[in-house]
Design a protein that fits this description.
Elements (H helix, E strand, L loop, with lengths): L11 H17 L8 H6 L5 H16 L10 H52 L7 H8 L7 H16 L1
Helix pairs in contact: 3-4
């Protein structure tokens, strides 16, 4: 049997409590947005270097508001900077939690799949013990491949259409 890194359970009560905590986090952050991929690409990004730039720009604008056009909303810039700075530690914490969840799901899923492969191998090797042929056949469907004939005929038809 493969190495078992994780041997744990998650009770329904604990799972529900975590889901409630996630719901509470969402409720406390009602302004969160869901951007489409195109929107994300189009936006200028604020990374570590840009944070210093934005901070300096806010300082300059606060100390010298006269050069800004009347339409410029200095208070909105201040609110955006403050919100970003308040959200950033949350983002780091949630990112770390996301990575831990991803790694744990990957590891425990891998363990379960590796063990299931062993069960399948042992079941196939044991022959028809206790009428397992049907179950082994069902499990074998996981590894069934589609016939290549259909793909090669489809390619021939398409290439034939192109030359006509």
């Amino acid at each position: 049997m493969p190495v078992n890194q994780i041997s744990a359970t998650l009770t329904q009560t604990d799972r529900d409590a975590v889901m409630d905590a996630v719901a509470m986090i969402k409720a406390k952050l009602p302004f969160l947005v869901d951007l489409k991929a195109e929107e994300r690409k189009a936006l200028p990004k604020m990374g570590d270097k840009s944070r210093a730039f934005v901070s300096k720009a806010l300082e300059v604008a606060t100390q010298n508001p006269d050069f800004l056009p009347r339409s410029f909303d200095l208070e909105e810039l201040r609110k955006d900077v403050q919100l970003f700075e308040a959200l950033y530690p949350l983002l780091l914490s949630m990112t770390q939690l996301q990575e831990l969840l991803d790694d744990t799901c990957l590891a425990v899923g891998s363990e379960a799949y590796a063990a299931a492969l062993q069960v399948y191998t042992y079941a196939k090797a044991s022959g028809n013990v206790g009428g397992m042929d049907a179950v082994v056949g069902e499990m074998g469907q996981r590894f069934a491949r589609k016939p290549r004939k259909a793909k090669s005929q489809e390619a021939t038809v398409k290439s034939g259409e192109a030359t006509v």
